[in-house]
TrEMBL record:
It is a multi-pass membrane protein. Residues 67-106, 119-156, 163-201, 212-250 form the EGF-like domain. It comes from Pipistrellus nathusii. Residues 541-787 form the G-protein coupled receptors family 2 profile domain. The keyword tRNA processing does not apply. Residues 1-25 form the signal peptide. This is Adhesion G protein-coupled receptor E2. InterPro entries: EGF (IPR000742), EGF-like_Ca-bd_dom (IPR001881), EGF-type_Asp/Asn_hydroxyl_site (IPR000152), EGF_Ca-bd_CS (IPR018097), GAIN_B (IPR057244), GAIN_dom_sf (IPR046338), GPCR_2-like_7TM (IPR017981), GPCR_2_ADGRE2_ADGRE5 (IPR003056). The lineage of its organism: Eukaryota, Metazoa, Chordata, Craniata, Vertebrata. It holds the Pfam family EGF_CA. SUPFAM superfamilies: EGF/Laminin, Growth factor receptor domain.
């Protein structure tokens, strides 16, 4: 058999065998759902990428093969890193994440092994991807745009950058001696005009350090030959030499100053002669030596002349000779002339020395310190052995003065020998304070000099009203005792003689061995220690005041509670008594607890103002009480009494609290500084300020005394018509007691304060303190304990008692 025939026979056999099977397979597929395949001709299985319903392995026509989401698997198992999974029906594919691409080319891949995703460098792919003044920085899968150095994000547009001003950003990139100049995206540190870089420190952004250019030594100045160059920080100044002055219209400056020589007097010494009517061999010898110094004076030897003069003055003060036998008034006169002449001579000669600071000392302790003003000086300090002075140049220099300015401090400890027994004159206000806190200075004891006498002089002659005070610090070996007071004083001369005065000077503080003073003028100064007598408070009066006011506080509180809680007795009268009790209670309470709180001046002034108001309000209510008593006595009928009540109810509150408020407001607005004294938180007696309290009080107790006498006179005529059956003796005793009590309640006893003068002052002080500290007790006793409830229908025999008890 040939091979081809054999082949065709085999094919025929196969076709005959598979025919029935194909028919069976076709029938099976018709029973399977979509996305499934018939297996073995009988069973249906879901295709790859699909899954049967839960719990089945085979599916029927009614079942659904669900798509399997391969992307639900962990990314690294499906696509790998830097790639994203994309699910499709029955399958899936992978793509590189944004910012990545396949190294092998193409777009999609099927499994991790095919993952060749690499980061794309957007900065290289697109060089213009970022805007100007910024640079592109590649990041994994993306990129960022950052501002170049020297730039920052613009807050108005986050995609734009703007220049950073390093000079104003607070970074302070340059050295303090250099000047910062901002540039685009950078800065530069340069030296200012008149400065130069330190060697090895060129102009640059970080390492520039500058130093001042000395125009005077380097010759880089334009000063006129008649001037001398003075180097300053960053500049220079052309100033006149000592003994020279600027030509008019040529002020001190770096270019335009021209000077001319000052004609120096042949001698700076005045003609020193003995005061008229005074003969002294010691003074004659002294004046002769001084005149000899003047005859031999030469500007070039001014330094030696000043030293010789200081020594001559020191010798005179060390050995006054026959001056010690002179009357104190003549000694004071010599001291005044000596101080004035010394000031004149030293002021004249101080223009000659060229040194900026000079100190002259004598063997006996006399000392002179000189200072010549230099450019840039604002405050100056001069010191001698026992004193120091601090002043402001601007305060003592004449406006427009561009020449030399000189200040001197002269200490003459021996001058106290010629100032013995000199009187002390206090300012009026200081004298008033002493009068309030102490009995005053002991007139038989003269003030004692604690410090050296110093004199101050400057080039300016007008030093009486300085714009800022001069400070002096005096050293003294003796510390003040409790009964001694220190004063900062100056030596004042007048037609009636010389004396120490506190005008324009005040003490700032005192330590054990030094005292600080301030003065608004220049002269000769010192520290005086004056004895004073401490005004000791009578301990018995203090105890009586404390006990009396404490008892009154208790009684006033009980009285106020009685008026508030007892409804049956509440009427116009009890309303007046309630307000009086409250005001007195608050006033006494504040007096006991805060009258001595003088440490804080503001708090003390507030306490004084509160006491002023409360006590004035108390006296106003006393006045209303007296008025009510008088009106009640006149209107004896029920109808008229009701009219009185309506009148009092309408006006008593505005008057009782408004009138004292008006007085206190006016007093505070006119003189607020007079509230509070160094000893008590009360009204000052200066300028009659205490009469803002005493005036209204005197008026109140005077009017109340008149009201009381008129009331007693009215009731006297009614007593005769009383029912004879009433016990006359009993009513008379009660009437007399309550009448006397009304004198205390209405404040009439305050007139005892005026009687505290003369021999009976002590007795009147005790009587005044006892009676007025117990005013609250009388109020409680009369208005509460002895009060009778009075009805409008009370009989005529009870009326006098009701009137006097005002219940």
């Amino acid at each position: 058999m040939s091979p081809s025939i054999f082949l065709w026979l085999c094919v025929l056999l196969i076709l005959l065998e598979d025919g029935p099977q194909s028919a069976r397979a076709s029938a099976c597929l018709q029973k399977c759902p979509p996305n499934s395949t018939c297996v073995s001709g009988t069973a249906c299985h879901c295709n790859t990428g699909f899954k049967p319903p839960q719990g089945k392995t085979e599916v029927s026509r009614a079942d659904i093969c669900e798509d399997i989401n391969e992307c639900d698997q962990p990314k690294k198992e499906t696509c790998g890193i830097a790639a994203d999974c994309h699910n499709t029906k029955g399958s899936f594919y992978c793509k590189c994440s944004p910012g990545y691409r396949l190294l092998s080319g193409g777009v999609k891949f099927r499994n991790v092994s095919e993952n060749t995703c690499q980061d794309m460098d957007e900065c290289q792919l697109n060089t213009k991807i970022c805007k100007s003044r910024s640079t592109c920085v590649n990041t994994p899968g993306s990129y960022t745009c950052t501002c170049l150095p020297g730039f920052e994000l613009n807050p108005e547009d986050s995609e734009l950058c703007r220049d950073v001003n390093e000079c104003t950003s607070g970074q302070k990139p340059c050295h303090k001696t250099a000047h910062c100049i901002n540039k685009v995206a950078s800065y530069q540190c340069r030296c200012r005009r008149g400065w130069k870089p330190v060697p090895g420190s060129p102009n640059g952004p970080n390492n520039t350090v500058c130093e001042d250019v000395d125009e005077c030594t380097s010759g880089q100045n334009a000063c006129h030959p008649s001037t001398q160059c003075l180097n300053t920080q960053g500049s220079y100044e052309c100033r006149c030499r000592p003994g020279w002055k600027p030509v008019p219209g040529s002020p001190n400056g770096p270019n335009n100053t021209v000077c001319e020589e000052i004609p120096f007097p042949k001698t700076p010494f005045p003609t020193w002669t003995l005061p008229h009517g005074i003969k002294s061999q010691t003074l004659s010898n002294f004046f002769e030596k001084v005149q000899e110094l003047g005859r031999d004076f030469k500007p070039a030897s001014a330094h030696d002349t000043i030293q010789d003069l200081i020594q001559e003055v020191d010798d005179l003060l060390e050995s006054p000779g026959d001056l010690e036998t002179w009357p104190h008034s003549d000694q004071n006169y010599v001291a005044t002339n000596l101080l004035l002449n010394m000031e004149h001579v030293v002021k004249k000669m101080s223009k000659a020395p060229s040194n900026e600071s000079l100190i002259f000392k004598a063997t006996g302790g006399t000392e002179l310190s000189l200072k010549i003003k230099k450019q840039g000086d604002r405050k100056i300090t001069l010191s001698v052995k026992q004193a120091k002075m601090i002043l402001d140049w601007d305060a003592v220099q004449e406006s427009g003065d561009s020449g030399l300015s000189t200040v001197g401090l002269l200490s003459t400890p021996g001058m106290s020998k010629l100032m013995a027994e000199a009187p002390l004159v206090l300012q009026a206000e200081e004298q008033q304070v002493l009068h309030e806190t102490h009995k005053g200075l002991l007139q038989e004891v003269s003030p004692v000099l604690l410090s050296d006498v110093i004199s101050v002089f400057v080039s300016n002659n007008n030093t009486q009203n300085l714009s800022s005070p001069v400070t002096f610090i005096f050293k003294h070996a003796v510390a003040p005792e409790p009964q001694q007071k220190l004063f900062c004083v100056f030596w004042e001369s007048g037609q009636n003689g010389s004396h120490w005065s506190t005008k324009g000077c005040w003490r700032v503080g005192t330590r054990d061995a030094s005292t600080t003073c301030q003065c608004s003028h220049l002269s000769s100064f010192a520290v005086l220690m004056a004895h004073y007598d401490v005004q000791k408070e009578d301990p018995a009066l203090a105890v009586i005041t404390s006990l009396g006011l404490s008892l009154s506080l208790l009684c006033l509180l009980l009285a106020a509670l009685t008026f508030l809680l007892c409804k049956a007795i509440q009427n116009t009268s009890t309303s007046l008594q309630l307000q009086l009790s409250l005001c007195l209670f608050l006033a006494h309470l504040l007096f006991l607890t805060a009258i001595d709180k003088t440490e804080n001046k503001v708090l003390c002034a507030v306490i004084a103002g509160a006491l002023h108001y409360l006590y004035l309000a108390s006296f106003t209510w006393m006045l209303l009480e007296g008025l009510h008593l008088f009106l009640t006595a006149r209107n004896l009928t029920v109808v008229n009494y009701s009219n009185v009540s309506r009148f009092m109810k309408k006006f008593m509150l505005p008057v009782g609290y408004g009138a004292p408020a008006v007085i206190v407001v006016i007093s505070t607005a006119s003189r607020p500084h007079l509230y509070g004294t160094p000893a008590r938180c009360w009204l000052s007696t200066q300028k009659g300020f205490i009469w803002t309290f005493l005036g209204p009080v005197c008026i109140v107790f005077s009017i109340n005394l008149v009201f009381f006498l008129m009331t007693i006179w009215i009731l006297k005529t009614k007593l005769s018509s009383l029912n004879r059956d009433v016990s006359t003796l009993q009513n008379t005793r009660m009437l007399t007691f309550k009448a006397m009590a009304q004198l205390f309640i209405l404040g009439c006893t305050w007139c005892l304060g005026i009687l505290q003068v003369g021999p009976a002052a002590r007795a009147m002080s005790y009587l005044f303190t006892i009676i007025n500290s117990l005013q609250g007790v009388f109020i409680f006793l009369v208005y509460c304990l002895l009060s009778q409830q009075v009805l409008l229908s009370a009989s005529i025999q009870d009326f006098p008692l009701s009137v006097l008890s005002v219940s």
